[in-house]
């Protein structure tokens, strides 16, 4: 019988997260608009919870000169993101951790970017409120955070089949 140090290391949890947190890419133009809406400034810390292939991290570091930190549990996506980051010469500005987003250190974040399902956002909002610093900007792709009032809402037509929505919140 295998022993696990943490519930998030168990096969059940990993399967559950694949079902409840399906990977969907935030396109580069949407990542750019998210960070514009959040008014990202050089030197600020941008945290992407569930960073996938790293689009938001890359845009934050390359275009906005931010320090970018990503959290991702899918090893395959982490490998892809790290290769892209290295190829672009951004390794010293971006760090990716293979840690569950609910265990991420968000205490120093100026901006948190997410593209998560409403169900996960509904759980995550308590962590954001509890651990986020005053003034933290949270920018969400496509899904609002239930019970929270956004400061801004943006719409971007991605294709004839999808209108991207961006929600900006501030603690």
Briefly say what this structure is.
Helices cover 33% and strands 23% of the residues. The chain has 171 residues and is an alpha/beta fold.
Order of helices and strands: HHEHEHEEHEEE
What is the β-strand count? 7
The average pLDDT is 89
Order the strands across the largest sheet as they lie in space: 3-2-1-4-5-7-6
Helix content: 25-40%
Number of helices: 5
How far apart lie the N and C ends? 44 Å
Report the biggest beta sheet as strand number plus sense, adding barrel if it closes.
7 strands, mixed
- Coarse structural class: alpha/beta
Global outline: globular
Radius of gyration: 15 Å
Low-confidence stretches: 12-16
Strand content: 15-25%
Characterise the protein shown here:
Helices cover 33% and strands 23% of the residues. It is of the alpha/beta class. The chain has a seven-stranded mixed sheet with strand order 3-2-1-4-5-7-6, with helices on one face. Helix 3 links the parallel strand 1 (45-49) and strand 2 (67-71). Helix 2 (28-37) packs across helix 3 (55-64).
